[in-house]
Amino acid sequence: MATAKLQGSWTPKKKRAMTSLDYHIVLTRLWRYVEGTRVKNVYANRGIYELRLSHVENSIYFWPPYAFFPYKGRLASYEQEAPLLRELRRIKGQIIRTIYQVNMDRVVVTDLGNYAVIFEGVREGNLILTSNKTIIAALNEKKMRDRNILPGAAYVPPPTSSIDPFSITFNDLVDKLRKPTRKSRPAIIRLIRNLSLPAEVASEALYRSRIDFNSTFIEEDECSKHYFNIQDILK
Questions:
Q1: Dist. CA 182–CA 139, nearest whole Å
Q2: Is the pLDDT assigned to residue 4 strictly greater than 50?
Q3: Are 52 and 95 within one domain?
Q4: Closest C-alpha to 134, from 116, 149, 153
Q5: Residue 99 burial by CB count (10 A; 0-12/13-18/19+): exposed, middle or buried?
Q6: pLDDT of residue 25
Q7: In a domain? residue 132
Q8: Does residue 4 fall inside a structural domain?
Q9: pLDDT (0 to 100) of residue 163
Q10: pLDDT tens across 13-56, in order?
């Protein structure tokens, strides 16, 4: 049985971007007041894009690839010739039908009927304007093996191998933590990479379970306690 060493050698990296779970939490609060709201205008400054809304205090901010968030403040200054800004202003006056996360990934779609603004927080990030699911313009246009982000191409979301943290089963946990691999990885790394758990959730669950972050093998009874703690944190 692994012995708890609560001060192992693993230390979390400074958080520089939102996780997929962060996206989920923000959206569970955001959609309630933005659905049915009209876009008043779009502004940009230093890579941050503001969707200013009518009749509500908050704007929606997109900052590829780091974050998207609602905020009551306004951009202090504006760039009239910011990349993509002219195209994004096509949505002025459009009503937000819904805003949702794609495949529990770091991808958010703001659906405005014929138009959609798609924020991608993966890789170098992107902000994409589509019409009827066809790309009109993108902050970062590129051609890739699995999809094209180019004007005229049908929008395809980035491929994902991530698991929805809210749908993790006990068998998933046992498989990922106890299955032998060619290279033994610490429990904390397996949780983050194989189960798509944010580092703060993985570390807190291990701490509560009194499992060494650096353990390469965990007994099944420990997995049971650990599974309970993960579910408790995600509530």
A1: 40
A2: no
A3: yes
A4: 153
A5: buried
A6: 83
A7: yes
A8: no
A9: 72
A10: 566 778 888 888 888 877 778 889 999 999 999 899 999 999 77
Count of domains forming the chain = 2
Q: Is 222 among the domain residues?
A: yes
**Residue 120 structure tokens:** 């991608």
Give the integer Cα–Cα distance in Å for 16 and 53. 27
The count of residues in the chain is 235
Helix (H/G/I), strand (E/B), else coil: 150? coil
Query: Same domain, yes or no, for 169 and 142?
Result: no
Q: Do 121 and 207 reside in the same domain of the chain?
A: no
Average pLDDT for residues 182-190, to the nearest whole number? 76
Structure tokens belonging to residue 153:
């191409």
CB proximity list for 123: less than 8 A, separation 6 or greater: 65, 158
Are 145 and 171 in the same domain? no
**What domain range is 210 assigned to?**
165-234
Q: What is the pTM of this model?
A: 0.79
* CB neighbour burial string for 210-230, b if at least 16 within 10 angstroms, e if fewer: ebbbbbbebeeebbebbbebb
Ranked by mean pLDDT, the top range of 2-16, 59-73, 197-211 is 59-73
Domain containing 198 — which CATH number?
1.10.8
